[in-house]
Amino acid sequence: MTAPWFMFATGIENSYPTIKNGTVRVDEMDKCGHYKHWRRDFELLQELDIRYLRYGPPIHRVWLGQNRYDWSFPDETFGVLKSLDVVPIVDLCHFGVPDWISNFQNPDFPALFAQYASAFARRFPWVQLYTPVNEMFICATFSAAYGWWNEQLSNDKAFVTALKHIVKANVLAMAAILDVRPDAIFIQSESSEYFHADEPDAIKNAEVSNARRFLSLDLNYGRRVDSEMYEFLVDNGMTREEYHFFLQNHLRQHCIMGNDYYVTNEHRVAPDGRTWAAGEIFGYAEITRQYYDRYRLPVMHTETNLAQGPNGDEAEIWLRKEWANVLRVRNSGVPIVGFTWYSLTDQVDWDTALREENGRVNPLGLYDLDRNIRPVGTAYQQLIQRWRRVLPTQSVCLTVPVVRPSQFGTTQSDHQQAEARDLRQGTSATQTMADHGG
Question: How are beta strands 266-269 and 275-277 bridged, if at all?
Fold first, then answer.
């Protein structure tokens, strides 16, 4: 029943934020041709022997209103994934919401999103792995601090409002999914960041940014935030009751921490607070260690890529470098359970963080948009073949209890779910007693 302890994955990019004051939807599945070529995209997984896929339905096409859904496209696509025995890591909200929700300032979003998550889980009960809301910190930052997407606001109060709604939506969705699939596992893809002071006068700003980068996961995992961050949250609209919701409703025991890392994830900070890309200084291994030391959860490298440049081997070199970092993390004693090249195909307008519609193809995928394999695709295929048989021998104890689609409904699968349900009920009862001083 349990999978080999390492999950080699890719993803099909399904971002869909709005820009231009909500009038334009940036739908990467459309831009990258997935709606037209989705069957071919799934065939590519078979060619690479990739069995885990970060993937999700386009929320703006499926979720038409409260308790109103159009499941036609997910029924087709997830039906084929199930027949191929591909394990999806289902991304339910990726940087945007349906027009009728408006944006992440809407206080009704968390409860409504939990209903959507529950409806999906009931529709596809064989799905076990989820990322309810992708990159919560980045979503709140780009939407409500930088003013690039969705509400396009740029102030601290808007950021805190977006953040608390997004993380609450994630927590409520986890609970709703667990009510349907008690052995669900949540792989919380989140950007792993670090801020380097560019000079002594910038140290304070860098320290604040390095505390702020943890906010989404602190709230999601029920960890008390640092005192300065607590004041920041309260000063910008989070109530004591809202804060205590996160302390009382964490579900970290069901979670794998997903750490995304790109060459743009490290930043230089100026004395006036300005930031710009620093390039790779610490690298994935060091920054992941910082996150692991804080949360003590199993880890998965859930996103990385680099553009294929003029030499043709730039992405391939980056793949080898990231894989070396994954091995370093593992060898240092951190339980790391997976790696992801993101994404399967090239992307469009990724270079402007989807805030401009230039139609520029970014050569970041394992395949180009004509579905021809890139050198990094061949390199990843070889990496998987070479390491898949080696890694499980490193620890026969460290396994992830993944139920493959073909195993769903078997006696062993039903037993695992029953045990998970009993454990969840026992945990809830213990928590209730603790809340009441029992």
Answer: antiparallel
* pLDDT at residue 199 in the model: 96
- Residue 433 confidence (pLDDT) above 50: no
Same domain, 414 and 344: no
- The one-letter code for the residue type at 249 is N
Pairing of strands 194-197, 255-260: unpaired
Q: Are 96 and 15 in contact (CB under 8 A)?
A: yes
Please state, in angstroms and rounded to a whole number, the distance separating the CA atoms of residues 9 and 344: 9
Residue-level pLDDT at 365: 98
In this structure, the answer to whether residues 322 and 413 fall within a common structural domain is no
Quick one: 152 and 204 in the same domain? Answer: yes
Same domain for 428 and 306: no
CATH code of residue 79: 3.20.20.80
Query: ω into residue 343 within 30 of 0, thus cis?
Result: yes
Q: 412 and 399 in one domain?
A: no
Looking at the structure, tell me whether residues 425 and 324 fall in a common domain: no
Do the domain assignments include residue 2? no
Nearest to 336 by CA among 2, 5, 3, 1: 5
> Cβ of 208: how many Cβ atoms within 10 Å?
17
pLDDT attached to residue 3: 46
Mean pLDDT confidence for 18-29: 97
CB 51 within 8 A of CB 86: yes
Domain count, the chain: 2
- Nearest by Cα to 62 from 137, 115, 139: 115
State whether 146 and 221 are in the same domain. Answer: yes
Residue 327 token pair = 């091995």
- pLDDT at 288 exceeding the cut of 90: yes
- Determine the average pLDDT of the residues in 107-126: 98
Q: Is residue 37 a part of any domain in this protein?
A: yes
Inside any domain, residue 1: no
Mean pLDDT of 196-225: 97
Rg (the chain; Cα; Å): 21
- Structural domain for 287, as ranges: 7-406
Q: What is the DSSP letter of 351?
A: G
252 lies in the same domain as 300? yes
Distance separating alpha carbons of residues 33 and 225, to the nearest angstrom: 42
pLDDT band at 190 (very low <50, low <70, confident <90, very high): very high
Let me know the angle formed at the C-alpha of 364 by 133 and 300, rounded to the nearest 5 degrees. Answer: 45
What pTM was estimated for this model as a whole?
Answer: 0.95
pLDDT higher than 80, residue 45: yes
